[in-house]
Amino acid sequence: MPFSDLPPILGTALSERGYAAPTPVQAAVLEADAYGRDLIVSAQTGSGKTVAFGLAMASDLLSDDGRLPPAAAPLALVIAPTRELALQVSRELIWLYGKAGARIATCVGGMDAGKERRALGYGAQIVVGTPGRLRDHLERGALDLSALRAVVLDEADEMLDMGFREDLEEILDATPAERRTLLFSATMPAPIVSLARRYQRDALRISTVSEDRGHGDISYQAMAVAPADIENAVVNLLRFHEAETAMLFCATRDNVRHLHASLIERGFAAVALSGEHSQNERNSALQALRDKRARVCVATDVAARGIDLPSLSLVVHVEIPRDAETLQHRSGRTGRAGKKGTAVLIVPYPRRRRVEGMLRGARIPAEWVPAPSAADIRKADSERMLAALLAPVEYDEHDQALAERLLAERSPQEIAAALVHAHRARLPEPEDLLASDAPQEPRGPRPGFEGSAWFRINVGRNQNADPRWILPLICRRGHVSRSEIGAIRIAAHETLFEVPGPLAARFLDAVRRTANEEDEVEIQPVDGKPRDEARRHRRDNARPVHAPKPYRAHTGRPDHGKPSAPKGPGKPAGGKKGNWHKKPGKGPK
Fold it and tell me: Contact, 257 vs 369, CB < 8 A?
C-alpha cells in the first residue's frame, strides 16, 4: 500500500516529514493480508519500524473522520526496553498522530511518576513506556488497559534478555483478549516464540532482514592496533573522519567516564551516556547532539539502545562487542533512513582472530585498514580546509571594507597563512601511534643482557604475534622502556623475550600488578633458558663420554634412579618393608 492510500491526516504528516515512499517493513505491514492481524515482524535497526507499527495500528485507532476519538482509557500501548527508545518512539508517534488529535503519555523510569499519572488521568489514547514503570502504574491503578485495542512490543528480544519477562506477562494478562498484538523483534529465540504463541492468535510472520545481516548502508572497517594505542586510535579516527556526529561504544561505565574525560581534555565537544547518568542528564546530552553543541557521544550498549540521531555517520567500537548481535545493534545507530554510515572496530592485535570469526559468523564484510596516522590526518585537514576556504561565499559592504583593510596592512600570503593557522588552531592535535610501521631497531643480544632473564607470552605466529604490538604491551605491563627489552623470539604458539637480570624482579612484580582477569595475553617467567639457549648450555657443559655413570638401583618403581636407602633386615632398597619384590596381588591375604 503506498502512502497515498493512507488516511489523509497520516499522509500529510509523512509528506511534511520528508517520506516519499514506504520502506520495506512499512510496506509489508500495510499489505492487505496484514490488515487487522497479529504480526511478528523481524526488521533491521534503522529500517523505519517505529513508523511501521504506527501505521499498522492506524486502522485500530482512527475513526471514520481520520481522527482519534476521545478515550477515558488508552487505546494503544507501546512497550520498549529502555528509556531512550521509549522517548524516541513517543517523539515519532507525536508527529505521526499529532494532526489526528492524539494524546500520547510516556511512562519511563527516572521521570516524575506523579506527572505521568496525571497524564494518564487526563485521557491519553496512546501510552508508550518501559515494562517496569508500566507495571508500577498498573499495580497502583493509574493505568487502565481494559479498552486497549492494540499493543506493540518493540525489540521484544531485548526486553526478555534484560529480564522483563514477568513484567510483560503481567501487563499482557491485564489487556482484553480481543486486542491486536504486534511483536517486533530482530531475532526469534525460543522465549520469543513462546511469548508469541501465548499472547497472539494466527500471527502473520514478516521478515525484512537481509541474508548478510549487515546493514547495506553501513561500511564496516576493522583496524588492528597495539593495546596501548587504543585511545590514540580513537582520537585519530575522530580527527580523520570529522563526522558531524560520532558515537563511541565502551563496555563499562568506568571506561565511558575515562574516555569522555580524555576527549574533553583534548578539546572535543563530547557527551557521555551510561547507567550512572540520570534521565535528565541523558536528555540534555542527546539534545546537545541534536542541536550540534556536541559532536561525539561516548556510551555503553544499554544506554545507547534506541537512540536515533539523523546526523550520526560514524560509529566506533572502542571495545569489542560481546557478540554479533551487539555489533549490529551498535552499528545500526548509523546508516539509517537511506543515509550512509561507517562502523569501525578497534581491535587489539591479540584479539584479531576472535573478531575475524565474529565478522565471518555474522556475514559482515569488513575491510581491514590501518589506523589513521598523524600524517594522514594532516593531509585530510588540508583538503577540507582548502575546500572550505575556496568555496563561494556571499559578503556585504562591511566584509569588503574589512578585507580591504587587511590587504592594506598585510600581504595576501600573510593573510592566507593567518587563515590556515586559525583553521588548524581550533582542531585537536592528532596522536602519534606507538606501533607505527617504521622499522624498529634490531633487538639482538647487546651489552647489558649477558645475565638476562627470559619471559614467555602465550601468543605466537598463529595468534598474529608481531613485535610492533608486543613491544608496547611488554613496556606497558612491566613498566619498562623499549631499551630495557632485549631479544624477542616469536614461535608458533608463544613468544619469548629477555629482560636484564637486575630488572627481572621489578618487571615481574609490575606484570602481576597490572594483570586483570579479562587479559587474553599472559606474561610468565621462563623456568630456565629458552630452548636453543638451553641446548647450547647442555652441549657446552656435557660430561665426557667415558665418565663413569653413578650406580642406580633398578627397583622397577616410579622413583627409580633415586639413591637407595641402606639395606637392613627386612628392609629392601627404597626403605620400605614387606613383599616389595612380589607382583601386585600376589602377597599374603
Answer: no
